[in-house]
Amino acid sequence: MSMTMTIAELVASRKIPLNPTTLEDAGNPLVYEMLQVGLLEVDRIYQRMLSKKSLNIYGKLKNDRLVCALVSRRPNSCGDAYGDFIVDGQHKAVIKYVSETENLNDRKTWLPCQVKVWPEGMTLQEVQAGEAELFYDNNMFRSNPNQVEKYRAGVIFGHDEAIMMDSHLKSLKIHIDGFGSDEDDAVEMKTPTPFFNAVLNDIGTRDSVAGGLLLQAGWELYQKIFPNHLTPKIHGQCFRTMVLLDKFISVGLSNSKQKHFKQWVVSSKGGLSDTATPESLVRGRGSFNGPQWILHTKIIEPYNSIMRNRAKGSETKLGEVTLKQARQSGMSEYGEDIFRHPEEEKLKK
To answer: Comparing C-alpha atoms, which of 86, 87, 2 is closest to residue 37?
Structure first.
């Protein structure tokens, strides 16, 4: 028995049903061309798809792995936006360009591309809508994209949740491997899942102004406490913890307790930054309820320990009564027990 089959034999043996169409309905095929990589353009909406992390994974150029990039050839009717635009394959193009293997006088060394040629007379909006369909159809069968990749694509397709995440990141001037803010002074975030959890679970109405202000307040607190730990990257779990910590200070505490605790938290001498760094704060606490663990075991406990050794420690310590009141305030404000210790019942025994 032969170990190989033709496509016709494979279809027959697997009883795959025929799915006939016409040449007219199938449309014109993509055109294979070798194009000069440095001259290809990238529309702003697709620039967010570029990931430095992916570039590092791919490494140096290997021509026998360089499959075709997908290029849209926009007609003159698109005005100033006419020409050859990469729809999918930016990473291939960048890897090819930085390899410096392209000889401008030798077309065989250029970037292999499959080109969608749009007919003259189409508007830019019509072409962009067609490009979005091309991109989606070309990517829908890729396996296991991470959440950032899903959000990158989601912005292009107009998905509400992806647009909301992008909007919050832009407002905060934060990006996740190029997704989010493109400001020159934007800060990069690693371990982004906790940030997504903060938006989806911690700020009430996700796309509201009030929700955005809660994120902004947490980010400002992060910068006050750890001004020297904003590069090369901030930590997503630390960011989410700062959102919780800011709510604990502003809603859970009041009067002198609030004043003294906040002073200690933001103090550059003898404060939280003297007992922890962003990395040590989140170490071992990467779970969904990690911020509650961090609040109680790595912030409140060190604070109380320090206050015991001070003259007015009893006035500033966050004791059982204060923490119970904080939980009640949290329930009243947010409708859930967000300031509860994760092992509250065990602690009572």
So the answer is: 86
Contact status, residue 75 vs residue 88, Cβ threshold 8 Å: no
∠ CA 294-299-304 to the nearest 5 degrees?
140
CA-based radius of gyration for the chain: 27
Token output for 178: 């190029």
Whole-angstrom distance, CA of residue 7 vs CA of residue 59: 34
Distance of CA 163 to the CA centre of its chain: 11
Look up residue 124 and give its amino acid.
L
What pLDDT, in 10s, does the model give residues 89-135?
888 999 999 999 999 999 999 999 999 999 999 999 999 889 888 88
b or e along 94-130 (b: 16 or more beta carbons within 10 Å of the residue's beta carbon)? Answer: bbbbeeeebeeeeeebbbbbbbbebeeebebeebbeb
Percent of residues in the chain assigned helix, strand, coil, to nearest 5 = 55, 10, 35
- Mind listing the pLDDT tens digit for each residue in 260-274? 999 999 999 999 999
pTM here is 0.74
Distant-in-sequence, close-in-space partners of 71: CB < 8 Å, separation ≥ 6:
33, 35, 40, 84, 85, 86, 87, 89, 113, 114, 115, 116
CA distances from 19 to 6, 29, 158 (A): 18, 18, 31
> Is residue 186 classed exposed, middle or buried when 0-12, 13-18 and 19+ CB atoms within 10 A define those classes?
middle
Contacts of 175 (CB under 8 A, 6+ apart): 169, 181, 182, 186, 187, 188, 189
- Report the length, in residues, of the chain: 349
Which is it for the CA torsion 291, 293, 297, 298, positive or negative? negative
